[in-house]
Design a protein that fits this description.
- The complex is a heterodimer of chains A (402) and B (381).
- Chain A has 402 residues and is of the alpha/beta class.
- Chain A has two domains: 147 residues, ATPase, nucleotide binding domain (Nucleotidyltransferase, domain 5, 2-Layer Sandwich), CATH 3.30.420; 186 residues, Nucleotidyltransferase, domain 5, CATH 3.30.420.40.
- Chain A has 15 helices and 14 strands.
- The longest helix of chain A has 25 residues.
- Chain A is globular, with a radius of gyration of 22 Å.
- A six-stranded mixed β-sheet of chain B has the order 9-8-7-10-12-11, with helices on both faces.
- In chain B, helix 1 packs across helix 3, helix 10 packs across helix 11 and helix 11 packs across helix 13.
- In chain B, strand 11 and strand 12 form a beta hairpin.
- The chains are: A alpha/beta (402), B alpha/beta (381).
- At the A-B interface, helix 4, helix 5, helix 7, helix 8 and helix 9 of A face helix 4, helix 5, helix 7, helix 8 and helix 9 of B.
């Protein structure tokens, strides 16, 4: 069975084609970029072949997906001989609001719900819907499955997901904490337990997904009970260019002092803040920042110290909520690859039974492994996330049930 | 100041409004209310001085018996790390901080100026809500925003209730007979406004209120931690501007917003007991947020020796203290129900004998702290 996994962003489409029968082999993967802009292009990698990149006019998501299908069936690429060899399509869907607590087979009702939720994710949901509709046109009759970033966190209790605002505003507009990266948090928690030979249902786990976007989740008995992102993905941790938690009182102040509109302030908090802002414009890239910090750059050091402190806050808060922790997992581009960041985040936490094996951690990247000392009460692991694989598996599961 | 007595205390309220009045609590327990047209702070202070020296209700014969005046000042920005003798330069510095506390610093300055006019030669001391938290390290006080905004405008976490956090943390160590400079302490000032502070070796290293007092915990009418994206969304949906939004999040949110009953913890507790769902929910949310900060600060300090509850709710609401401390034994917090239940407004240890962390109730006394600081500072000049 061949499953095409799509991640449609506002101006990009990432894709991977899996063959489920051959041990989840990735037959091809690629990315369409700059949709609707000058310089739009597609890039594809197939094992054993030179990567290929084509610059061509790609005016919308239908054109983008059309290009993907053409490239997958291109005779030089030798991936598929016809569209018909794709058995199902899995979509990463960003926002399922309170309507979706699990992955779903896409039908008209699901599309209607997704449309209702556009308000909550105005950048992402429209692109997701366009991706689904493009597939309906190009591969009519093929089953499509949606896997939501928010679904895993729908198990959060009310006390964790509500903000301290009038309850009627939650009822009226569904303003609450949703959380994101759910697919990743769920995947790495399960994978870590499998590797340790543990039953996830009696463990307390904290997963740190540290990528360009970043969030931390508290998982009890396999369910998400709290996560650091909120109504939007700009909440919680300091990220590449996102501020994370700030005092709501600064909005009014900055509007006045910098003569900015509300939207400008919010844009600034999303695009010019975070590590980039804290390092005074040095970089939003953790690799650059970690190297610079090691070389004594103060701007980089400041940004990384704030970053690590915030991660620690959340680990502490979730240990309190879980009343303990058995396992801490690091994942995401930064969590998997940046040893310096892991070291900063996990330093001086021995009161929590968390003891990092500094020697083992140093220089380690992109490998699933334990990085805590033998004596550490809490297990600390690096686990590589693979959201596309989860989507492929979910698609396989639901299509088979149908 | 270790031997002190309160000769009188009181409150002037509704200044500039209808029904302005001075409420006096005399040392003998008698309460007196003086109604009058108190149009501004200066007149309010004239009333106070008049009552203190009055034959019938006063406690002193003449103003010269007052040796010094201590002021609570809300915002000292980054300029003030401790209490100070008020001078002209200090007043100009306070004026520079108005921008950071537009509601509070102006009346603080008016109070100082009124005293200067009414008691020209008296020494005055300013004790800041923010000063105690000035020891926070950069990684704790910076937000993830452009550094230039911090450099230009001082946009950072300041924290408030510093005088209270300082008083109760020191007092807790006195009661226990342990060295303040060697302990890791978390203080929960839970009143109508509320904040948690982490105090390591006598220094504040983290606190939950931020640039303004809205951040952090759920409060009587304040939202506390809130996603900026949610703020924007709400403003667009409800078609409101920043001022209305600020009023919404400061005055109509928090416990009041969630319950739609009251901002008063006692009313909410009562409603919860009689089965009101939203009241129960609000209490859970309240306890949960405090608990998360306790966890965060235990992480930030890599441990905690003493947890202190203070403020109207912290001192009196046993059910809230219990809600916060329940299921925290993994971190060494073990509350003793038999000590906690029914305890109100009294200094006490409420943890079990085996609890790794000492959990305490210490009623706050910001005024005493201000008086002490004032005495120490004026004695130097």
């Amino acid at each position: 069975m061949n499953i095409l996994v799509l991640n449609c962003g506002s101006s990009s489409i990432k894709y991977q084609l899996f063959n489920i029968n051959s041990g989840h082999k990735v037959l091809a993967k690629g990315q369409v970029d700059r949709i609707g802009n000058a310089g739009s292009n597609i890039e594809q990698k197939v094992e054993g072949k030179e990567p290929i990149e084509i610059e061509t006019e790609i005016s919308d998501h239908v054109a983008g997906i059309d290009m993907i299908l053409k490239l997958l069936t291109d005779k030089h690429q030798q991936v598929l001989s016809s569209y018909d060899e794709i058995d199902a399509v899995g979509h990463r869907l960003v926002h399922g609001g309170e309507s979706f607590t699990d992955s779903v087979v896409v039908n008209d009702e699901v599309k209607a719900k997704m449309t209702e939720l556009i308000d909550l994710a105005p950048l992402h949901n429209p692109a997701n819907i366009q991706g689904i509709e493009a597939m309906e046109r190009l591969l009519p009759g093929k089953p499509q499955v949606g896997v939501f970033d928010t679904a895993f966190h729908q198990t959060m209790p009310e006390k964790a997901y509500l903000y301290g605002i009038p309850y009627k505003l939650y009822k009226k507009y569904h303003i609450r904490r949703y959380g994101f990266h759910g697919t990743s948090h769920q995947f790495v928690a399960n994978k870590a337990c499998e590797q340790l030979g543990w039953d996830i249902n009696d463990k307390k786990i904290i997963t740190c997904h540290l990528g360009n976007g970043a969030s931390i989740t508290a998982i009890k008995n396999g369910e998400s009970v709290e996560t650091s992102m909120g109504f939007t993905p700009n909440y919680g941790l300091v990220m590449g260019t996102r501020s994370g938690v700030v005092d709501p009182g600064i909005i009014e102040y900055l509007m006045k002092r910098e003569d900015m509109s509300l939207n400008e302030v919010v844009t600034m908090l999303n695009k010019k803040s975070g590590m980039y802002g804290l390092s005074d414009g040095f970089s939003s890239d953790m690799r650059d920042l970690a190297d610079a910090m090691i070389d004594g750059n103060e701007d980089a050091e400041r940004a990384l110290q704030v970053y690590a402190h915030r991660v620690k806050h959340y680990i502490g808060a979730y240990v309190a909520e879980l009343n303990g922790v058995d396992l801490v997992v690091f994942t995401g581009g930064i969590g998997e690859n940046n040893w310096k960041v892991r070291e900063l985040c996990l330093s001086n936490l021995n009161f929590f039974g968390i003891e990092l094996d500094k020697e083992k951690n140093k220089g380690l990247r992109g490998r699933d492994t334990t990085i805590s000392t033998i004596n550490s009460k809490t297990e600390v692991m690096i686990v590589q996330t693979d959201e596309e694989l989860v989507i492929a598996n979910e698609t396989f599961r639901l299509v088979n049930v149908e | 100041m270790d031997n002190h007595e309160v000769m009188a205390k009181g409150l002037v309220e509704k200044i500039g409004l209808n029904g302005s009045q001075l409420k006096l609590n005399k040392a003998n327990g008698e309460k007196v209310i003086f109604e009058g047209e108190i149009v501004d702070h200066k007149i309010g202070i004239e009333y106070v001085l008049g009552v203190l020296t009055s034959k019938k209700h006063g406690c002193i014969n003449e103003l010269s018996e007052i040796s010094a005046v201590g002021h609570r000042v809300v915002h000292g920005g980054e300029s003030f790390h401790g209490s100070v003798l008020i001078t002209d330069e200090i007043i100009s510095e306070l004026e520079r901080c108005i921008d950071l506390a537009p509601l509070h610093n102006p009346p603080n300055i008016k109070g100082i100026e009124a005293i200067t006019e009414l008691m020209p030669d008296i020494k005055q001391v300013g004790v800041f809500d923010t000063a105690f938290h000035q020891t926070m390290p950069e990684h704790a006080f910076m937000y993830g925003i452009p550094y230039s905004l911090y450099e230009k405008y001082g946009v950072r976490r300041y924290g408030f209730h510093g005088t209270s956090h300082r008083y109760v943390s020191q007092r807790a160590c006195d009661i226990l007979g342990v060295e303040y400079e060697k302990k890791k302490i978390i203080t929960c000032h839970l009143g109508n406004g509320a904040s948690v502070a982490a105090i390591n070796q006598g220094k504040s290293v983290d606190t939950s209120m931020g640039f303004t007092p809205i951040e952090g915990l759920l409060m009587g009418t304040r939202a506390g931690d809130l996603d900026i994206g949610a703020v924007l969304y709400l403003m667009e949906k409800e078609n409101i501007g920043t001022q209305s939004a600020s009023t919404l999040f400061n005055k109509h949110s928090g416990m009041l917003g969630v319950t739609n009953i009251s901002s008063d913890a006692r009313d909410i507790e009562e409603a919860a007991e009689s089965g009101h769902d939203k009241a129960k929910l609000a209490m859970k949310m309240y306890d949960y947020r405090v608990k998360k900060y306790i966890g965060s600060y235990t992480a930030a300090m890599n441990g905690c020796d003493i947890l202190v509850f203070t403020g109207g709710i912290g001192e009196n609401a046993d059910i809230t203290r219990e809600g916060i401390c329940s299921n925290l034994d993994w971190l060494g917090f073990d509350i003793d129900d038999s000590k906690n239940n029914g305890l109100r407004g009294k200094e006490a240890v409420i943890s079990t004998d085996d609890s790794k962390v000492k959990i305490m109730v210490v009623p706050t006394d910001e005024e005493l702290m201000i008086a002490r600081d004032t005495e120490v500072i004026v004695s130097k000049y």
